[in-house]
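user: can you give me the structure for this one chain? tokens are fine.
assistant: on it. calling the predictor now.
[tool input]
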Amino acid sequence: MPDAAAIVLRLDSYTEWSPSATGVHVILRGRLPGSRRRRGKVELNDQGRFFCMTGEHVRGTPEAVEERQAELEQITVRSSRRRSRSPPQRSSRST
């Protein structure tokens, strides 16, 4: 999965600092494809979860909540492709 800064840039919607000020929340309109919600330090939610809004807007991001379905799908598909790659297998061939 891309790093946080790349995700924020790609989603290009209202972004605010988390209550701890060590992370961000990108708020957008869209539906998550599939059921995967967490990958490393990145968590994506579209229902059934609550989080605290701070109103501490991240400078340089839009001040409006935008429709970003296509961008959300690109991020989740890229993540699932990386997860589905199997590690290289060692050859069992004897020399």
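assistant: here you go. The CA atoms of residues 21 and 72 lie 23 Å apart. Residues 69-84 form the longest helix (16 residues).
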